[in-house]
Specification:
Layout: E1 2-8, E2 38-43, E3 46-50, H1 56-63, E4 70-72, H2 78-81, H3 88-94, E5 98-102, H4 104-113, H5 115-118, E6 130-134, E7 140-142, E8 145-154, E9 157-164, E10 167-169, H6 178-181, E11 189-193, H7 206-216, E12 220-224, H8 232-236, E13 243-245, E14 251-254
Parallel strand pairs: 3-4, 4-5, 5-6, 10-11, 11-12, 12-13
Antiparallel strand pairs: 1-2, 1-14, 2-3, 7-8, 8-9, 9-10
Length: 257
């Protein structure tokens, strides 16, 4: 059994958004409060994190994460990598390096943003102990579960989703190439980017995400990376019964392969 915990379901600035008094940012519905996007995949006593958002410390404390076994990166935008330094407490407890996996392009950005982590010179300060790995098209075997990278269009750039068992997590995509779509069929659970209703050059709309659900036919779909244009309760009233909005703290059980 695989357990997926939604650590954050919001867009790059989070909800509430600084300086905004809109109905969603001031909503009393806790599902409208959204930290930056990330999930935790739990199985066989292991914890695999997808993305270290700037809110990772808060997410780890709220979810009571006690161990990290690996980190996968979808891409290297700030809202997906800037919590990397907060893995240090896990190093203190685990006393070992934590493997991280990223595309070659993303790893280059991570190494540039966190150059001190990769600097081998002695230091008086603590720093994250990580073991970097660059992934390509091949599945990433992690503790008896394969994570298959799914290439996505993110505007003119590229991001990656991951399929694992009968689930897949996609965030930050404006389109899904057909060769990638073929890897997303026959799923129990599919996460999709659904930033807002208005078109955006680097993200998917709610309506387009629903069209992808119709095309790929997962049993259940959850929309994520949501901005403050989308109110949780009102939006779910308009969605098909097998499509829901993700929200922070949501847990989903999925059968393995």
């Amino acid at each position: 059994m695989i357990n997926i915990v939604v650590l954050g379901s919001g867009t790059s600035v989070g909800i509430p958004t600084i300086g905004c008094d809109c109905k969603v940012c001031t909503s009393g519905d806790p599902r409208d409060s959204r930290l930056r996007p990330s999930i935790l995949v739990q199985y066989g006593g292991r914890n695999v994190l997808i993305d270290t958002s700037p809110d990772f410390r808060q997410q780890a404390l709220r979810t009571r994460i006690r161990r990290l076994d690996a980190i996968l990166y979808t891409h290297a935008h700030a809202d997906h990598i800037m919590g990397l330094d907060d893995v240090r407490p896990f190093n203190f407890v685990q006393r070992e390096g934590i493997p991280i996996f990223a595309s070659a392009e993303s790893m280059q950005v991570i190494q540039g943003c966190f150059s001190y982590i990769f600097d081998s010179r002695p230091t008086e300060s603590s720093k994250p102990k990580i073991v970097p790995h660059v992934f390509g098209a091949d599945p990433i075997p992690l503790f008896d579960l394969a994570f298959v990278p799914i290439r996505l269009n993110h505007g003119r750039g590229t991001s990656y989703g991951f399929r694992f068992g009968n689930a897949a997590y996609l965030t930050d995509h404006s389109d899904i190439p057909e060769e990638s779509a073929e890897k997303l069929r026959g799923l129990d659970v599919l996460f999709l980017d659904a930033l807002r209703y208005k078109p955006h050059p680097t993200h998917t709309t709610v309506d387009r995400a629903v069209q992808w659900v119709d095309h790929l036919k997962p049993k259940r779909a959850f929309l994520t990376h949501i901005c403050h244009d989308v109110a949780h309760a009102r939006t779910e009233e308009r969605l098909p019964s097998n499509v829901r909005l993700a929200y922070d703290g949501l847990e989903i059980a999925v059968e393995g392969e």
